[in-house]
Amino acid sequence: MSGNEGRLLDATTLRAWCATALDALGRAREEIDSINVYPVADGDTGTNLYLTTEAAFRAVEAVFEAYQEDADAASAPALKGVARAMAHGALVGARGNSGTILAQLLRGAAEVLVGASSEAVDGVVLAAALRRAAEAAYEAVAHPVEGTVLTVASAAAGACPAAEADCRVVARAAYDAARDALERTPAQLAALGRAGVVDAGGRGFVAVLAALVAALGGEPFAGGPAARPERWQPRHPEPPRGGGSGDGDVARPGDAGGDAASGEGVARGGDVARGGSGDVACQDTGEGEWDGSGPGYEVIYLLDAEDDAVARLRARLDALGESLVVVGGDGLWHVHVHVDDAGAAVEAGIEAGRPHRVRITHFASDAARPAPASGERVPRAIVAVVPGEGLAELYAEAGAATVPARPGELPGSGELVDAVRRAHAHEVVLLPNDADLHHTAAAAARDARHLGVRVAVIPTRSAVQGVAALAVHEAERRFDEDVVAMTSAAGATRYAELAVAEHRSWTSVGICQAGDVLGLIDGDVVVIGQDVAAIARTVLDRMLAAGGEMVTLVLGEECPTTLADELERHVRAHHLAVDTVVYAGGRDAALLLVGVE
Known about the structure:
Blueprint: E1 9-10, H1 11-34, H2 45-70, H3 79-93, H4 96-114, E2 120-121, H5 123-140, H6 149-158, H7 167-188, H8 190-195, H9 200-215, E3 249-250, E4 280-284, E5 297-304, H10 307-320, E6 321-329, E7 332-339, H11 342-352, E8 354-362, E9 378-386, H12 389-397, E10 400-404, H13 413-423, E11 425-431, H14 438-448, E12 454-457, H15 463-471, H16 479-491, E13 494-500, E14 505-507, E15 510-512, E16 517-521, E17 524-529, H17 532-544, E18 550-556, H18 563-574, E19 579-586, E20 592-596
Parallel strand pairs: 3-12, 4-8, 9-10, 9-11, 11-12, 18-19
Antiparallel strand pairs: 1-2, 5-7, 5-8, 6-7, 13-16, 13-20, 14-15, 16-17, 18-20
Helix pairs in contact: 1-2, 1-3, 1-9, 2-3, 2-4, 3-4, 4-5, 5-6, 5-7, 6-7, 6-9, 7-9, 10-11, 13-14, 15-16, 17-18
């Protein structure tokens, strides 16, 4: 709280708010997903809010890291810069309807903070920021509906005392009013009343306000309003669990464990239309709740466009569909709409400017899906997230169904559930192969129980750990025994990666410049340099210093062609009785992946 004991809000407090909000939403994510019934019951509101907040948090952290490299680490960056970063990060990383509205709430608050004349604002300014946040959210939604997060945000803003100078008092008043408003949402929106739940987006925003109170030192965060008020009964009983732990067994091997954010249900393949330089992702979520009464597709994209063009775009998209939310400004916009004609929604964006990061999700029921080619399920299948075409071929040869992961664009839980469904098996072992996918994989495993599939998640952090797990997989074993063996193999495999720094930043071994080659072991930077081969040798020697019998090398498309032979010679010359196996990672793979067993 920077020594002001929560009376004022400064850059450090804003940073703490983002971090605490991320923590709060991470804990509440599954609960919020479970009560998501409006506007579409696709079970991802908590996930979308988490990912949007994570994007805001990362943007804020980047400001602090850059500042500490160039200034006294004891001081903090300007409030204006941090507020701008928070708003921009949320805008660029917004997911789904709920995430898009949250991004606008944060942007509205940031507008006031950026305009403040001091580096630490009082409760009067904070109250104005919360009021502006609610106004901005209403402005972004084409047809506001009461009983949603808009109502909750408005109640919070209306409760802020206009003349109170203590930020803690203002934040607590907003939080208390938001909780009360949230409790009333089932009576305001019929869909919530029938389901016996409060509004999922509103529940998430209350968690964000609870985090603000905590960041200012006024308590909340840990607690939260009930998802299902006692006077409202759930619409469905808890689904039965299949196979003992059908909602997702999660194994935790030594250093292969860890949690991360879960993703939104979108895929990364299949172009529907292409505008500007953005990829179009289209996927059928199959959450089983859409009844065909509303638009069949959710379309989301970032848009580079002028204000006048966006005004015309709003009108066109409003005529095409519903749940229209357009947020942003200063040339960059985030567009969200539910439509039946996804192509027309993308074309409207192309006419307005340059759409990119286009994502299209199909709200289809399980009943509407075509039946699998084979009527009988196989006993067991492996589903793995794999970066790189070469690795995908390797995994496929080993009998695994693969889900592609492009750099900076990880698959969402809906895509993993779809892969589990396509595997058509009674039991599925899921290999996320990335620490940032562990929450996503857990969410997918939980959702798979509705399909009657038993899913075990082995929390692999790298594709080389997945290779080790696949090597010991035996479908004839009992499921639990197979999972234990694969988990043990993954946990016994240390992993490393060579990557190229995209910008100047601080690392645990010093400052790196854009273009530097980074050597990472188990996710931590251990060496920085310019020579790929020298960095690779250093990483190998450090890993093998602790012992090892097998080295796995996966070379990306950008890796020097002579590197594999050079590293194999190096291992033979300096590490006796250690075998080396080399694979081509291909396009979208890391520069170099290393596994040591």
